TrEMBL record:
Species for this entry: Desulfocurvibacter africanus subsp. africanus str. Walvis Bay
Enzyme Commission no: 2.7.7.85
Self-association and partners: Probably a homodimer.
Full protein name: Diadenylate cyclase
Family label: Belongs to the adenylate cyclase family. DacA/CdaA subfamily.
Membrane-spanning parts: 14-34, 41-57, 69-87
Molecular function terms, GO-annotated: adenylate cyclase activity; ATP binding; diadenylate cyclase activity
Domain DAC: 86-242
Catalytic activity from the UniProt record: 2 ATP = 3',3'-c-di-AMP + 2 diphosphate
Keywords of the record: ATP-binding, Cell membrane, Membrane, Nucleotide-binding, Nucleotidyltransferase, Transferase, Transmembrane, Transmembrane helix
Gene Ontology terms: biological process: cAMP biosynthetic process
Annotated Pfam families: CdaA_N, DAC
Functional description taken from the UniProt entry: Catalyzes the condensation of 2 ATP molecules into cyclic di-AMP (c-di-AMP), a second messenger used to regulate differing processes in different bacteria.
């Protein structure tokens, strides 16, 4: 069998435009999958696949009533998705609009991540509350505008100074962009998730809230318990020691 006619298809008839079209579509689908990976959209996608399969089988088996119900449901599915997943859609479109579909995250050097880990560990030992938001592909400029501009290098000492209980900025969030502290004392949106345990206060609710709307890596220190948490895509990882904290932040940044 000749290779050009493999599988009964004449590969010699493929043009460079068709190849380019296939590569671009594949790349876009790949990036879109990365955007929704780990979000609430994933189980919804699985559910939609099951509904479509059920619709197909109901049509083939002649289950008229079930087929009619599924047909009407699928006819309005796009509107339902938009209503249920406004935050995820907004986050995805923001990433695409700022080049998130075609570029990698802003550069944050290992030294910066290490300074953040050292600061969080020290503040946890001292039971000093803290809330740090590390920007990835979705810009946090509008959030930073709600606080006080800093634009300083990320260091353990500066972070501990900002969150010291006697400073006017300690109750807000710090926004880190690249290797700089963009702003401090920032007000974040609170999550409305009713399933969040009552033991978590305003800092944790704010951390989850901003991570539901952006792809930022958010870290929290509880002044009541002296524990460290990381929030990614609305998911809370708690009670981290220094080693686990470093690993979780690195893995989250590499996603």
């Amino acid at each position: 069998m000749e290779i050009p006619n493999l599988f009964g298809f004449d590969f010699t008839q493929i043009t460079w435009k068709e190849i380019l079209d296939f590569v671009l579509v594949s790349f876009v689908y790949y990036r879109l999958i990365l955007l929704v990976k780990g979000t609430r959209a994933v189980p919804v996608m699985y559910g939609l696949v099951l509904v479509v399969l059920l619709y197909y089988f109901s049509s083939e088996l002649g289950l008229t009533t079930l087929n009619w119900l599924l047909q009407n449901f699928l006819g309005s599915i796009f509107l339902i998705i938009i209503i249920l997943f406004q935050a995820d859609i907004r986050k995805g479109l923001a990433a695409v609009g700022t080049g998130g579909l075609f570029r990698r995250d802003r550069g944050v050097h290992e030294k910066t991540l290490e300074e953040i880990v050292r600061a969080l560990t020290a503040m946890a030992q001292m039971r000093v509350g803290a809330l740090i938001v590390i920007e990835k592909t979705v810009p946090l400029g509008d959030v930073g505008e709600r606080g006080i501009p800093i634009r300083g290098e990320v260091t353990k000492e500066l972070l501990m100074t900002i969150f010291h209980p006697n400073t006017p900025l300690h109750d807000g969030a710090v926004i880190i962009q690249g290797d700089k502290i963009m702003a401090a004392g920032c007000v974040l949106p609170l999550t409305t998730d009713p399933k969040l345990a009552s033991q978590y206060g305003t800092r944790h609710r704010a951390a989850i809230g901003i991570s539901e709307e952006t792809d930022a890596v958010v870290t929290v220190v509880s002044e009541e318990r002296g524990s460290i948490s990381v929030v990614i895509d609305g998911k809370l990882v708690t009670n981290l020691d220094e080693i686990r904290l470093r690993r979780v932040i690195r893995n989250a940044w590499a996603r």
